[in-house]
Write a structure and sequence with these properties.
27% of the residues lie in helices and 21% in strands. The chain is of the alpha+beta class. The termini are far apart.
Amino acid sequence: MVATIDAIKENPSLAQFQFRSETEWVNGAHSRTKIQGFYGAGAEDTSRKKPFVIEGDEPPVLLGTNAGANAVETVLAALASCMAVGFAYNAAARGIKISSLKFTLEGDVDLQGFSWDF
């Protein structure tokens, strides 16, 4: 951790990252996202030999088939993951030991916000 911090202080361009995803609609509310390569630390990363696959869908009450989490749930998971790594890395950089960390997030959606006028 300290070596990474020092390297970025020495060469700030190493801090620039670009993450990418590719999403394809499957059918109905179901989509499939693949995540593999990214640019970071001054180079294209090739450490992931196969892509991560994230299935997206809706529950049946929203006309889906539960083939995966819906978009709001995926965003909540991404936010919690970002917060967890942020807390853990900042604690480690300060010599603070974490014995446990848990996030519970909720996302409210009012379907009246969708445009149903076609």
